[in-house]
Amino acid sequence: MDKQSLLERQRPSPPRSGRKATLGAITCLLITVLWFLQGWLLVKPGLSSEPLSPLEEVLRKAPLIDGHNDFPIYIRAFYYNHIYGQNFSDTATLIGQVDFPRLQKSRLGAQFWSAYVECPAENEHPKEQDTYYEAMHETLQQIDLINRLMDRYPSYLRRASSAADVWEHHRDTSSTAISSLIGIEGLHQIANSASALRLFHNMGARYVTLTHSCHNAYADSCSPEKPLHGGLSSLGKEAVHEMNRLGLMVDLSHTSVATQRDAFETSQAPVIYTHSAAYALCNHERNVGDEELLSIQQTGGIVMVNFFPGFVACSPNATLHDVADHIVYMGEFIGYRHVGIGADFDGMGFDNGPDGLEHVGKYPDLLEELLRRGVSVEDVSGVAGANILRVLEEVEQVSHRMRGEQPLEDKVKSLFV
What we know:
The protein contains 15 helices and nine strands. It is an alpha/beta fold. Its EC number is 3.4.13.19.
């Protein structure tokens, strides 16, 4: 036995009464600490012992995300993209469905802003590059506008370029600014140039709609009815491959059924519909048929439900309940993990939104209606935003795997002709 151990054995034990006093003091101290902590937890914001409501649980699990908002084209139409002489944080300034105070009320966590530019005149040939130079020029202006709005109103908007950015912002409770991403609404906007496609991606675009309401060199639109290519052209298939390589989501809203089916076959990543509804409930050409819904299910994509009355009710008169019907129909048919929200606010022309969903401040009412119908908190949180982030993450993963592939190059005219 070493010297230290021997000394320990020879040390006299404290009296039993002293031990009891020590234990009593420790017990009293622990009770005091626990009592203090209980009171602190009850009053500290976000740490209440009260259970969250189902809606708050949904919004805790995932950010609320809208896949399509046309606010930028509204600014172009009514303010000529001049934003510095205006105060868009004043509800009296804007007469549309979107303004910053209502956006904050909306509980939105992220928004895809559409850098939309209209199609060229119908009589111009879609394969001629010169046809689209003005559209490409205006697209640059719209992307610049979105970025200037973020700089001008940092308390309302903040940049995001990935699913990870949006999740990080969602966890940051110190700010209510909305994560802002960009969508391009038609390949006519790239002026038949893969170089422009890459530049738009570098400038913040994270999805591109293959067509708007016109055919282009890459794909057929659902309007006009007479097809040009019968789906994706050979250039269109190359463009989809390049979008996969870049990490751009392929958006099928506005496209023909043949284009949609070709895209399912061609894309290596899940595809999306950013603002469409269910054809089974409203037989509008802009909506998604059951066969295509099954393809979305099989390939892991998502349909983000549009609020436009003509698409959800086949009538100028629609309600929040009509929009909920489309979400529930698709959720029950292919699974709620394949459904999201793509309202198309400020893109409905001069039509009103559905009763109960008149403007961006009303999103929580739609989530409440889904919960009232018995859709689970988990499924509603997916519809609210987790589903589109899952798809974006998968698109990013495909892009990462394809980064070793060569970019698609443009055909450039010789300088010496």
